[in-house]
Every structure is written in structure tokens, then in C-alpha cells.
Amino acid sequence: xxxxxxxxxxxxxxxxxxxxxxxxxxxxxxxxxxxxxxxxxxxxxxxxxxxxxxxxxxxxxxxxxxxxxxxxxxxxxxxxxxxxxxxxxxxxxxxxxxxxxxxxxxxxxxxxxxxxxxxxxxxxxxxxxxxxxxxxxxxxxxxxxxxxxxxxxxxxxxxxxxxxxxx
Length: 167
Known about the structure:
The protein is globular and about 45 Å long. The chain is built from 4 helices and 10 strands; from the N terminus they run βαβββαβββαββαβ. It has one domain: Alpha-Beta Plaits. The longest helix is centred in the middle third of the chain and has 14 residues, at 74-87. The chain has 167 residues and is an alpha+beta fold. The strands form 3 sheets. Strands 1, 2, 3, 4, 5 and 10 form a 6-stranded antiparallel beta sheet that branches. Residues 1-5 have low confidence and may be disordered.
């Protein structure tokens, strides 16, 4: 099934990179996400620099969040995001939180809560990650994450931890 039953949905995508000119990786991924058939960009946050979550012997990340309107079902949107990652040279290895050319996460998909082997929405780390919450709050301060609460409330309990706006 390629389309959700209720038509168009607002989804939020997290973009991140810390290899091969991260600013350009995020900017070009933005354009590629907006070019996916059935996807239209609604908003894009500032770019943010953040320290890596995992091993500290890697470069800082550049992150942003994008709001889109889509008539694609969540799994179809995820597959497009994974394809964009692959085009950017993303290699998935067993180890988590390693350096990467591009990371695209489906953070929120309308008011849906999805839990499958392939996809969990809202994104499981959303409420704990400054590099997601602050850009998300920038573009959607009134947003409520299904099952998690208002982004404005979540951000209060999430210190910036080195996160800084870079544009």
C-alpha cells in the first residue's frame, strides 16, 4: 500500500551528516527529499552542529529537520529516504552511531504511531536528542509527538549538550 487511508500527512524528517562536506550533504539531501514524488517541503530548520552521540573520535555532525507534506505511506517514504542515503554513499554497518555521509530519519508521521520490524514512529530517540528537538521546535513549536507529548515540553528536559546553530 503506497498511500495512507487519510490522504495527505505532515511528516518530519531528521537529516544528519558528519562526513564528506556535511553541510552540502544535508543541503543536497533536502532537495532530493523534496523531489520525491508525493512529497512537498513545508519547512526546513536552520543547520545545527552537534557532537557525535557514539564514539567521540569522529567529526561533529551537521543536523536539520524538514517538515513535508506527503501522500506516501510511511514505509514507502522510509524506502525513499533509505535510497537517498545510499546515493550519498551511506554504508550501514552493525555498529551504531558511527560516522556517516548521510542519515535520514523519519521522526514523526502525522498522528500515527508505528511499530514494525522496519520502522518505529515517532522515532525512538526523539525525546532525548537535542539535535532533533531544537530544530524540530524551530519549525513546529506547537507540534505534539504522538505518545510523547508537546515538543515544547520535551525540549525543556533536553539540554543543548554542545548543540549550536550554524546558519
